Amino acid sequence: MSVKLHPYVVFLPAEQKDRILSAIFGSKAGVDILRFSLKQGIAKNLYQKDLVAQLNYSNKTIIENLKMLTKLGVLTELMEKNEKEGRVIWVKAYQLTDLGRWFALLLAEEKELSEKEKAEILQSLFRTYVKLVKALAAELGIGKRNLEAIFKEEIVR
User: Fold this and answer.
1) In Å, how far are 16, 88, 126 from 129, measured between CA atoms?
2) Range 102-122 average pLDDT
């Protein structure tokens, strides 16, 4: 039996790995918030009122999940200034961080992504991976030239 596998990679802060994974995947609401961000576009802001209106969760559950995802670095909290009927109103908005985008994309179906988006994801993934390998290599005393030689060998194969 042949199964098509998708190469999902998510970089996690080591000290918070378990907390982040359980906050997202231990709660259906956390997963649904990420799916909602995918549906509307991962670059767009999330608003509590939209999440309450679109998802089948109480306001309290949405707020708790937004707070936890913000605390863990999956979301960033922003304040937006809106004018309504001559009055200034400050509205809380949330945006996916780089880590949050990776988790949202982990939930995406490949067919939902354009070739351009896939190319951007691959390039971003490669850049992040190179930065992490470079830092680890420095800790282990492996020179940049060694890494460069390995890269050149593999790229021409």
Assistant:
1) 19, 44, 5
2) 77
Mean pLDDT of 88-93: 91
User: How many other CB atoms are there within 10 angstroms of residue 5's CB atom?
Assistant: 6
**What share of the chain has pLDDT > 90, as a percent?**
35
The helix (H) or strand (E) run that includes residue 89 is strand 87-96
Annotated domain spans of the chain: 9-108, 114-157
In contact, 105 and 120? CB cutoff 8 Å? no
CATH architecture label of 9-108? Orthogonal Bundle (1.10)
For the record, the structure tokens of 84 come out as 């309504």
Radius of gyration of the chain (CA): 19
**In terms of C-beta density within 10 A (0-12 exposed, 13-18 middle, 19 or more buried), how is residue 46 classed?**
buried
Helix (H) / strand (E) element for 150: namely helix 144-156
H or E, element range at 54? helix 48-54
Whether 59 has a pLDDT exceeding 90, the answer reads yes
Residue 102 CA: distances (Å) to CA of 8, 40, 108, 121:
9, 16, 10, 9
The answer on pLDDT for 141 being more than 90 is: yes
